Every structure is written in C-alpha cells, then in structure tokens.
Amino acid sequence: MKKIMLILMSMLFSTMAYAQVQIINPGSQEGVFRQILSTIGDTTEHNFVQADNPVTAYTYIEGKDTQPILTIWSSEWPGDDSLKSPKVSKDNIVALMTYETLMCSRAYNSLEDMSGQTVKIATWGSEPVAKFLKNLGAKYNVNFVVVPYSGSGSTTKGYVGKDADTVFTITSRQAALEEDGTKCIAFSEKGELGFRFVDAIITINADYALTNELRSAVTNLSTTTEWNSKFKGSVTYVGNGTNQTIDMFEEAVANFSK
Amino acid sequence: MYDTIFWAVIGTLSGVIFGVIPGAGPFVATATLYPFLTHIEPVNVMMYYVTVLIATNYTNSVTAILYGIPGDASAMMTARNGHRLFLKGFGNLAVATNAVSSTIGVVFATMVFILVLPTIIEVFRFYNSVLQTIIVAAAILMITLLTKQNKLFTILLFLFGGMIAKVGIDPITFDSFLTFGNSYLAIGIPFASVMIGLYIVPELTKLNSLKIEVPKRINNFTIGKDTTSPTLIGSFVGFWCGLIPGVTNILGSYASANIVKRFFKKPVLKSIAAAEAANNSGALSSLLPLLILAIPITGSEVLIYYIMLEDGFVFNAENTVNHLKDIIYIIPFVTVFCLWLSWYGFNLLGKIAYYYKTYRNIANILLLSIISIASISIFAIHEWMIICIFVLSIIGFLIRRWDTSPVIYGYFLSDLFYENLIRTLIIL
Known about the structure:
The structure holds 2 protein chains of 2 kinds. Chain A is α/β, with parallel strands linked by helices. Chain A has 9 helices and 11 strands. In chain A, helix 4 (127-140) links the parallel strand 6 (118-124) and strand 7. Chain A is elongated and about 55 Å long. Mean pLDDT of chain A is 82; it is low at 1-19. Chain B is built from 21 helices and 2 strands. In chain B, a hairpin with a 6-residue loop joins strand 1 (168-169) and strand 2 (176-177). In chain B, helix 4 packs antiparallel against helix 13 (267-285). In chain B, 57% of the residues are buried. The model of chain B has no long low-confidence stretch (mean pLDDT 78). At the A-B interface, helix 3, strand 7, helix 5 and helix 8 of A face helix 6, helix 7, strand 1, helix 9 and helix 15 of B.
C-alpha cells in the first residue's frame, strides 16, 4: 500500500512539475530550434513561448527564479553585454546538439594540396568561422579568402553556382555538394577540422528530477527515425551530470568567443 | 491516387482561404495544417504545397484589387494598379487579367519544370552571386529611375526601408544596429508593421481623395487587350527571380511590372498581367532549390522541408522527378478551378464596390484594424508589434502624399544587394 501511495504521489508530482514547464524558443518560428523544442514538447505538458531571437528569449528568463524553463542556447551566442546568456552547467544540460562540419573542394584533393595557395572559400560570414579558417590556414600554409553567406543553405547554393571552388559547411549538405563530382576532403567528425556547432538544450530553475525526466525523454527521442531524419547531420549527446557535455559546450564557446 | 487528390483539394481550399487573409499566405496555411502534414506521404505533402502556392497566388490579389491591400508583398503591384482600375469602374479587367495571367504563369512554370527538371542542376551552376547582383541592381535602378516622383526622395525612401530592416541584432555577427541598448529594438522592426504603417496607411489615405464609381459592366468578364506579351515577359522574369533566396516572386512581380511600364504603352493593365504571371511562375520556381538541393529559400519552404524530411523524403533530382510525375496531372485541374473561382468571385465585385463606396471610411478603418490585429496576434511579442504599427503609421500618414512603395522594396532588397555585392567583389 505504501509503495502504491509513493508511486501515485511521485506520478502526481511529476505531472505537476511537467505542467509548470515553460518552453522558450530563442530561434525563429521556422528554424531548427523550434523543431527541436516542439519535438521535446510533444512528450510533456508545457506552455510555449516563441521568442524569435535570443535577446527576447533572455527577457523571459531574466529575473524569473521560480518557474522551470526549457530552452536551447547556442555556443555561438557571445554571452556578453550585447547578448546575455543563461548559465549553462553540467547540472542543467539536458542534451547537446552538435552539427559536424566538413570542407569540400572541386579544385583540391586535400588540405595539403592547398599549401602556398590563396583559396576562395564559400562559408558563413561570421567572425568565429573567419578566425577558425585563419588558424587552419596558418597550419597548412593556406590563405583562405572567405566568400561570406548567412547560412549553410545559401553557402551550398553559392558553391554550386561556382562563387568559390572550396566550401566549408555542415555535413548535412554533403550530398548536394557532391552532385557535381566535388570531393569532401576534411571532416570535424574525424578530427581534421576543430570546429563544430554546438547547441545546448538546458533547463533553468528546474530541480534535478525534472532535468532528468527531460534527459530521459531526449534519450528516447534521439533513437527514433523521426528525430534522426529531422536533425540529419547532427549528433545528440544527452547530459548525464558529468563534465563531458559541459566540456564540449565550453570548447565550442571558446571557438566562438571574439 | 485518391489520397493525392484529397490533399490537392485541401491544399487548394487552404490556399484560397489563407491567400485572402493579408499577411497569412502559404506559411500560415502550412503551419496551420502542420500536425496533419507530418503524417502523410511525401508525395502528398508536395501535392498539398504546390496547390497552396497556386491558390494563394490567385486569391492574394482579391484584397489587392478590392481594397488596395496586398495579401502579401508579392501582390503589391496588383494592389497599386488593380485597385485604381477597380475604383474607376474597370475592376472586371483587373480581375480577369489577374486570373488569366496567373494561369499562364503557372502553365509556363510547369512546362519549364517538365522540360528542365532532369538537368536542373545545370541551372544552379551559373546562377551565382554575380548574376544575382546584376538582377537586384537592375531592380533597384528601375525603382529609382522609373518613378514619377522626385528621384532623390525615392532613393531616400528606399534607403529608409533598408535602414529599418537592419535595426536589431545581426544573427550572424551579433553586431547591433540602432538598438540603443533597448531589448525591443534588438528584435528588429517586423515587416508586417512596415507594410501596415508605411504602405497601407498612406495608400488608404490617398484613396479617400479618389472618385469612386460603381462598375457598370461588372457582369462582363473582359480580358484586357494586348496582355499576352506582358504575361509571357512576367512568366519568364518571374521564373528566374523565383530562384533568388529571400525575395523570390516579390522581386519577380516588381521587376516584370516595371519592365512593362517602361516599354509598353498604356501600361496599367499590362503591368498587372506581368506582375501576376511573374508571381505564379516565381512561386513555383522557388521550389526548385528545395526539391533538388534541399535548400529552402522561403519561410513556408522551411516548414515543408522539415515535414518532408520527417516523412522520409530524400531531396534529389531523381526523387523529385518521380514524385512530380505522380502529381503533375492534377495541376491543370487546380489551375482551372482557381480560374473559375476568380471568374465567379468577380461577379460579387459589383455589390462589394457599392458597399465600399457607401461606407468607405468605416471599411478602411475596419480593414486596417483587422489586418493590425491579425499581425499582432501572429507576432510573438505583441506589445512590440503594437508600438511599431503605431509609430510607423504616424510616419506613413505624414508622408502620405508620396509613393511609399520604395520603402517596402528597400526593406527587402538593400541587404540582399549589399550581401551579393560583397561576394561579387571578392569573387571577381
């Protein structure tokens, strides 16, 4: 009887805890963050806030210290006065979504082949990517000149249109890049490129039990075909309270810091 | 097969409904049916989306012609020219030309699809940043050189549009522009508020001074003379502009209408023909980067991309050709239905014109209120949308004597031009 009471009470409390979760999407309505949070949201009761950008999202987080929140935060977001960030720690990471990168070229067969050359490369026009390519160029004696785009889609389209003969983007674009016989020559997954995008799915103001419940939900989801087809090209690392995930996140933050 | 027909019907109906609602369009139509679409075959998703695109591009001209309010930015040229024709008693010509030219635009794009799809990858091989820079630059030149008002003021309006589009935090560099540390400004100025405040308000104010006549020949469905060439020009220009991310058929309708204005006599009706053909042709061609390269270039395509991925679709030329073979025969039926609907809806114009004439002020306020409420409810941060609509409406009212459409094009084109120009300078 005591056991049954305990089970019923724990079920009641877990339902109550779930009902209180507020999901805040700091991404756009049509973006991948919305897809991730909506998919997790399907497993639990919640109210959804579509913030559209991290600045607005933070206004929902700041100063609220009671209601449990589930959100996703990118390691690209600087976390300074221009764009404040919530605390990301081993205790509140539900999961990390990592997007591996690759470099492909129709003119070169390897990074070594580029040695001594000036190589125009289609990629994101952000400062962290420029910094990464500068360091990579120094290592292989290559002068990379960035042809800048705002996203991986337009980067791929620009490369196919021959804006540049080399491209640096995420691995989910590999098939489209290889349509014209392009060869992909380096991958972050194999350790050849020290750069990948890392987004942390985190809880805020949540207790250990709730964070763990959400980790279990993501663990189950990440093994489904639906999750893997939706977020093709990404790898999901579920948080387990150890330093593994926070180390990965902090390494990515360091890559993106100015 | 029956499933595919069912989703064609659903797509057409939701396209008709969401096309009429200003600001809704294919994105809201697809978002509304999202839960259902994730559980159907990819071929049916494709069928649904194609029919939504076709139907919305017919019906987004309804409010444009009747009230001068475009259903979305791509119907602006029709709003400008079609509504004036309507008020002068020639609404029948505007509606008929819209219907026929839209149909030809769909037929043109479908034929190009069939002809070039197996080798479509070749199209993307020469469609690079240099070519896009030239196209966008030509569009900007048309806006500034072909205007009848003061050219300097037109340029200033265009730059103003570009400036308000930049307000906020850049999602790539995280640099802020004109935010002054304010968290609302960091969000940026939403497009709906720009369209309401800086386009719809001045246009409605202008219409108050126009003499309205109830159309006498409202029961005659009359196709405008000499609209064949403008329609074909619109279909061709619209198809290529549809491949440009961000602007797609918006640029196509504007560019083709201005080409017609420049080179044809009596261009009002002909520019509607060109704009509507471009609109429909471009809406379909914008699908190509998604289906062949898995690159969505509009908001609604992003939704479709995820839905089809979820349904197990692999984006490549072979799969796309196979799926299109299964649905392409339905497109003529959908097109004929939309054409018939335009025809049938046209017969209601007489009554609507009469009521509009009688209650013009109330109708304008009511319309503006409905559009504003719809925009506020859709946008995540309601209070920010209210502030933006309020402030921009005041500015719009103050500059009501001017043609404010360059602001809208500045909002879309200036950043696109700048980005392509930077790339072109690096490439060359």
